[in-house]
Amino acid sequence: MDQDLVVRAQRGDREAFDTLTVTDHPRLFRVAHSILRDRSRAEDATQQAYFDIWRNIHRLAQPAKFGGWSYRILVHACYAEARRTPRWLPDSRLPTAHEPPASDGFDAVLDRDELERVFQSLSVDQRAVVVLHFHLDMTLEHVAETLGIPRGTVDSRLSRAMRVMRTAMRADTHHVAHQARQEAAP
What we know:
The chain has 186 residues and is an all-alpha fold. Helix content is 75%, strand content 0%. The chain contains 8 helices and no strands.
């Protein structure tokens, strides 16, 4: 991150902020999209984050910490965006009888879709911790600092998220096996 741009933006230089926004947008958008799982909502959250960054950049005491500070603002914008949007997902799985024969490529798509469905079932708080820790490779201490929450809260959110994901994946595996046994019975 170009600290000079941050300092200039703190002094009210709109061109510096515009340059900062253009160069930094992909980083924040990827995180927002990873948390919200929807391009349109991620774009809205990213735009709101930049609005909040512009309004509050003068409060940033250490320009070198712009990256973590901007993640915190972005995650809060994602929380707000998630609250504005109803939390429902259509069940897009085909009944087993209508699924084409599985191949390695098809199985990979099903696995990815299954993981996506399970990931979307997490709360936004849990998704934020998972994305920051696993997607951005942040330490748990850095996640806590970025989100402005205690390390223990990060630990519990991550633990719950992993438990929910494991449980959902096992339940789906059990459900598919149960359906196969029913279809095989005379």
